[in-house]
């Protein structure tokens, strides 16, 4: 499972931070950061979801009010 985070779209509500500790507050920018995420585009970050953390990643994606977080299964199909 892989997560993608569009940081440019993020509005800093930080619900993702409350749901999964892979996200952290960046109070200087007023946006979340995806810890360990690899930049795959302009301000878009990707991270393989560690085994056992899939549910937390789903909650983080579902709680984002602006859909800045997308989750993909191992076949590349978008889950959230």
Account of the 3D structure:
It contains two helices and six strands, in the order βαββββαβ. With about 80 residues, it is an alpha+beta fold. The chain has a single domain, classed as Alpha-Beta Plaits (2-Layer Sandwich), CATH 3.30.70. The chain has a four-stranded antiparallel beta sheet, with helices on one face. It has a two-stranded antiparallel ribbon with strand order 2-3. Strand 4 (about 40) and strand 5 (about 45-50) form a beta hairpin. The longest helix has 10 residues, at about 55-65. The chain is globular, with a radius of gyration of 11 Å. GO terms for molecular function: iron-sulfur cluster binding; metal ion binding.
Principal-axis shape: globular
Beta percentage is: 25-35%
Largest sheet, in brief, is: 4 strands, antiparallel
Specify Rg, calculated over alpha carbons: 11 Å
- Name of the CATH class: Alpha Beta
Protein name: Ferredoxin
Pfam family, one: Fer4_15
InterPro entries: Fe-S_cluster_ET (IPR051269)
GO molecular function, one term: metal ion binding
Give the topology.
Layout: E1 2-6, H1 15-19, E2 23-26, E3 31-34, E4 38-41, E5 44-48, H2 54-63, E6 69-72
Antiparallel strand pairs: 1-5, 1-6, 2-3, 4-5
């Amino acid at each position: 499972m892989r997560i993608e985070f569009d940081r440019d779209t993020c509005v800093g509500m930080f619900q993702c931070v409350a749901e999964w500790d892979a996200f952290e507050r960046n109070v200087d920018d007023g946006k979340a950061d995806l810890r360990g995420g690899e930049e795959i585009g302009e301000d878009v970050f990707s991270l393989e979801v560690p085994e056992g953390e899939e549910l937390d990643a789903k909650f983080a994606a579902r709680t984002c009010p602006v859909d800045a977080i997308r989750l993909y299964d191992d076949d590349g199909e978008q889950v959230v």
